[in-house]
Specification:
The protein is an alpha/beta fold. Helices cover about 60% and strands about 10% of the residues. Helix 1 crosses helix 5.
Length: about 170
């Protein structure tokens, strides 16, 4: 083998090693992001389950049912969703979706089991799903309307906000 051929071969091996190392670093970053996501999700789950089981949550729930500004918001959301055959509410909480759309074509998603239990107990007729906004368990274009009110601000990083918005966009029919 000549020097040039040998040198060329070394360059190929070098570039393969560099590519492998970059892939390894990328994989490590993805694992770190997944680990961060899982830790964050568990903390949020514990927090919201305990929050919705508190007396404060019951006061907030009653406020949503009676306060004029909340009722105006629900009226607006009802208008936006009235022409939709199917509606998904991400981060639905225990009451809002029932005020916007209370029929079998509505689906409420919340991380908190307690919030979903309160929604059911309140008489919600649609479907409830315990899931994270970062990994919605629905096929693309599954819903005519996707709403999300008072949930995004609870996500802890910009990456999570972008991911949640991306998940919601995938669920909404174009």
């Amino acid at each position: 083998m000549t020097w040039n051929a040998h040198s060329g071969r070394l360059m190929e091996v070098r570039s393969l090693v560099i590519k492998f190392l970059k892939d390894l670093v990328s994989l490590s970053r993805r694992k770190a992001i997944r680990r961060k996501f899982a830790t964050n999700m568990l903390k949020q789950l514990e927090f919201y389950d305990s929050a919705w089981n508190s007396a404060h949550a019951r006061v907030f729930y009653e406020l949503q049912r009676t306060d004029e500004s909340w009722q105006e918001l629900f009226k607006t959301l009802r208008c936006l969703c009235q022409r939709s055959e199917t509606v998904l509410d991400v981060g639905c909480g225990p009451y809002e979706l029932m005020s916007v759309r209370n029929d079998s074509t509505a689906v409420g998603v919340d991380l908190s089991k307690a919030a979903l239990a309160m929604l059911r107990k309140g008489g919600f007729l649609g479907h409830v799903v315990q899931a994270s906004s970062l990994e919605l368990p629905f096929k693309q274009n599954s819903f005519d309307s996707v709403i999300c009110n008072q949930m995004i601000e609870h996500l802890t990083t910009v990456e999570f906000v972008k991911q949640a918005i991306g998940e919601m966009r995938e669920c909404q029919a174009t």
